[in-house]
Design a protein that fits this description.
alpha+beta; 5 helices; about 240 residues; globular; about 20% strand; 8-stranded antiparallel β-sheet
């Protein structure tokens, strides 16, 4: 289980027609494209409208430049890369990270059709019973490609915990081709995905790390975003809006 202890607005200026409304959410024709710049290149991400609380909170932090110079402080191959701990900005080598926060949590927005495929952006959390998310810490899934037999074992375990849990044909096929971490489904809020730069996830998670899974070499991030037309996002990155 991913745990925050182990992992894992300034008001936006008014924009012209179809940019966003007053609470940070996009209007119909534009969306907020996030760029996470790393040592190994940029990742471009979109945030899901189905998880409005997480989307609004992440945009707020990006606009405040909260994430700039923070570390990806926990990386595990075939699992995930985690960052967003504010304590990581000035952390000394070897310092344990993962406990920093912004003083609030975000209510869970766990939806069955938003699952942990490779490249998904999800919120870290502690063991609170409501599954509320950390206000700032997040992880990006690498995961692995699952065989049919391996995946079925994961599904059987999920059904033991939650008999109502359903894995759709699309989800099954995605886990067997693109890959991901199906055992996290239903436990953490997935609120976005990488639409360009998946190779960065592979590079970051491959870095040498200590016993706490902190990279031996600091991996800092810079995060920014811009409101652009959805048609442009689709044309440029091939992401299809439902």
């Amino acid at each position: 289980m991913l745990k925050k202890t182990h992992l894992l607005l300034f008001l936006l200026l008014p924009m012209v027609c179809h940019a966003q409304n007053g609470n940070g959410r996009p209007r119909k024709r534009k969306d907020y494209l996030v760029t996470i710049q790393t040592t190994y290149g940029p990742m471009r991400l979109v945030l899901y409208d189905q998880t409005p609380k997480h989307k609004e909170n992440f945009i707020k932090l990006v606009e405040r430049k909260f994430y700039d110079s923070l570390l990806f402080h926990r990386v595990i191959p075939e699992f995930m890369m985690q960052g967003g701990d504010p304590n990581s900005k000035t952390a000394k080598p070897g310092m344990m990270l993962g406990n920093g926060d912004v003083g609030y949590t975000v209510p869970a927005e766990i939806l069955p059709d938003l699952f942990h495929k490779k490249g998904t952006l999800a919120a870290a959390r502690d063991n609170n019973p409501a599954k509320a998310s950390s206000g700032c810490q997040f992880y990006v899934v690498q995961g692995k490609v699952w065989s049919e037999a391996e995946l079925q074992k994961q599904i059987d375990r999920a059904h033991q915990r939650a008999p109502e849990r359903v894995f759709t044909d699309v989800q099954r096929q995605t886990y067997k081709t693109l890959g991901g971490t199906p055992h996290l489904d239903g436990s953490y809020t997935v609120f976005g995905e990488v639409i360009a730069g998946l190779a960065v996830v592979d590079s970051v998670t491959a870095q040498p790390r200590d016993v706490q899974n902190r990279p031996l070499t600091d991996l800092r991030m810079t995060v920014n975003g811009e409101w652009i037309k959805k048609k442009k996002i689709t044309k440029r990155y091939g992401f299809s809006y439902k």
